[in-house]
Input
Amino acid sequence: FGGCTFCSITEHEGRIIQSRSAESVLREVRALRRMDDFRGVISDIGGPTANMYQMKCKSPDIESACRRLSCVHPGVCDNLQTDHGPLVDLLRRIRREPGVRKAFIASGIRTDLAERSPTFVRELAQHHTGGQLSVAPEHVSEAVLDKMKKPGVASYERFAEQFACASQDAGKDQHLVPYYISGHPGSTLHEMIDLALYLKGRGIRPRQVQDFIPTPMSMATAMYYTGHDPFTREPVYTARDLRDKKLQKALLLYWDPAHHPLARAALRKAGRADLIGRRPACLIPPEGQDRLHGTNSNTDTRPRTRRPRVAARPPTRG
Output
């Protein structure tokens, strides 16, 4: 029921969340426990979105008649039951199962729902995060997020603060791993520059970047091919040329010397050459001053043997 325009799950699986019973999940946990190679660790409890378990409309009649694209955008519908209690209870029952040492949640967390349940966030931080937690803010531009039907960046920041506090209270050093999309309909070089500046300002270095790919039947695909928003009929810019898509992705990977030549080209094309330099406010160093394994990154063709730190430290308490 998230209704993300770049996702076609709703079109081929329906928009109603299908949740297994707690007893069914526990039977599977016990079956795992009986396997010879089980070492007491369950790697993931969840689905495409980990914290939508047993969430549904408060009325079947309203649900059957509703034609709203998303139950959570532009705001969470008053008819949507967002109680995390059943999920918290299930997680606690799994932890009590003999032989289960750890049970992690590795699926993406929907932040605008999670922030409504401090209890869930505490349980998540204390018992079900293996050092890193996946979240998908996707972008920081309100205009692009509106085309995605995703919550604003403020929702991500509130959740990040809650998670940081809960991790600190649990005495654990844990980090969020945010995912972002480049080249989504509505995203120009200027929006990607804003995103890159946001990431740099918070010390976030995304390693896993999703470049937008049209998927069958999704709303974002309709924007990609028609150049118009199907809801407002307004024109929507979309990066279609391969080089334009690479320029957007390079800005998102601003920290990686291998992408600096393209990032510099993107900044110049957008009229933001002022962001090329060694000043703290700059995104990319000048030509010849970015180095990869001790050599000039423009000429070094050797494979990289080291990867920079993946996740950003969440905001600290205060």
